[in-house]
Amino acid sequence: MKNFLKSNTFYGIMSVVIAILLWAYVAYEVNPSYEMWVEEVPVKCVNVSDLFTEGSLDINGNNKALLTGDTTVAIKIKGKRNAVSAVNKNNISCILDMISVTQAGSYSLKPNVEIDNSGVDVVSFRPGSIKFNVENIRQKDIQIELKETGTLPQGFTIAGVQNKNTKVKITGVDSVIENVISARVVLDYSSLQTTDIEKSLKIEFLDAAGNAVAADKFSKSVEYSKVTFKLFTEREVTVILAPKYLDEVKKNYAGIPVKLSVAGDKNVNDNGGIKMQVKLKGTATALEKYTDTEMTVYTEPIDVRNIYGELLFENVSAAPLSNDVEYVSVPIVDIKASLEGDE
Questions:
Q1: Rounded Cα gap, residues 3 and 7, in angstroms
Q2: 3 state DSSP class of 83
Q3: Do 182 and 142 form a contact (C-beta atoms < 8 A)?
Q4: Could you give the C-alpha distances from 271 to 43, 259, 261, 275, in angstroms and in order?
Q5: Do 229 and 161 form a contact (C-beta atoms < 8 A)?
Q6: How far is CA 77 from each of CA 37, 53, 96, 288, rounded to the nearest angstrom?
Q7: CA gap 229, 232 in Å, rounded
Q8: Which among 29, 209, 236, 327 has most CB atoms closer than 10 A?
Q9: Strand, coil or helix: what is 23?
Q10: In the predicted structure, residue 56 carries a pLDDT above the cut 70
Q11: What are phi and psi of 58, to 5 degrees?
């Protein structure tokens, strides 16, 4: 131990310790003044006009978030080191008095800064003043145009395209709203499925040059517009075409039953129907029931109440189909009428 106390190592360690003590003494006792920046101190607005809450005025530009408390400043403080080091943004109050802001225009206001900790003073802050623009809020109705693009699935055609929302109301500050000239939705045919009947499309907003305007800068009465349509395709199917009685009356005025059947010897069921190949046009969903089975379809209705003997109705057309299905070429048949028991 004696050797260690007399060694250079011991004197070296003691020198370091003494230097630290001297630095601490000078820093905290001899020279107590210290400066520090406190970052991201939130700005609180007071005396805000009701015109902002009513939606007549709004702040636009870099300090758009001023009224929501999301605007911050940096505060430079000064005081004794131990007092300054205890300060953070929660100990500082930065108040911006908005009592003079009652109409559209450019403003530059200096905030009032207060610190809870004693012995600490405000030296400066940045920015030195809060600059912002106030603009009038306005609304505008814009027609929604429908743009169609792309290629349909092979073998399909489209019809009845309709945009359900024809107008959109936008609300925002003057400088933004006046820049919005048109609105549109884009129906891309290449993205359609064969079973689709509608699409909900996001509305795009454009300026005078046709460039997109950021939609987050204003509010909209609707975000999407529904576009409805029908996708048709053609398909050859087998059906049984049968005669149709008017009002389902199957007797003449004398009460005698009258039988109707397609003329010829090819009847395939008790309804007097005939099997045939026809080409149908319709939506994929509606055509499914015709492709899955041999369905019975009917002719235009025939009135049998004045029939008292055998009679031939020539070129009777098939009645229109329902559920988004139609004939590509309407089949025509001859219908024979006979009294029951005459055949």
A1: 6
A2: helix
A3: yes
A4: 86, 9, 7, 12
A5: yes
A6: 6, 35, 19, 79
A7: 10
A8: 327
A9: helix
A10: yes
A11: -155, 155
- Of the candidates 102, 98, 180, 108, the one whose C-alpha atom is nearest the C-alpha of residue 140 is 180
- Tens of pLDDT, residue by residue over 268-313, are 788 899 999 999 999 988 999 898 888 999 999 999 999 999 999 9
For 8-88, list the strands marked E by DSSP.
33-46, 57-60, 72-80
pTM beyond 0.70, yes or no: no
Q: How far, in Å, CA of 59 to CA of 106, rounded?
A: 10
Residue whose tokens read 């009592």: 99
Question: 223-238, pLDDT tens digit by residue?
Answer: 999 999 999 999 999 9
Among residues 238, 227, 239, 235, the alpha carbon closest in space to that of 282 is found at: 235
Residue type, 316: V
What residue type is 85 in one-letter code? S
Nearest C-alpha neighbor of 242 from the set 301, 314, 325: 301
For residue 27, the 8-state DSSP code is I
When pLDDT is cut at 50, 70 and 90, the band that residue 173 belongs to is very high
Q: Count CB neighbours of 215 within 10 A.
A: 16
The tokens describing 58, both together, are 């709004």
- Closest CA relative to residue 148, chosen from 185, 200, 181: 185
CA distance 112 to 109: 10
Would you say 263 and 192 are in contact if contact means Cβ atoms under 8 Å apart?
no
> Residues of the chain with pLDDT > 70: what percent?
90
- The residue written with tokens 């309407």 in the block is 330
- Going by C-beta distance under 8 Å and a sequence separation of 6 or more, which residues neighbour residue 91? 115, 116, 117
Nearest to 230, CA basis, from 191, 192, 200, 186:
192
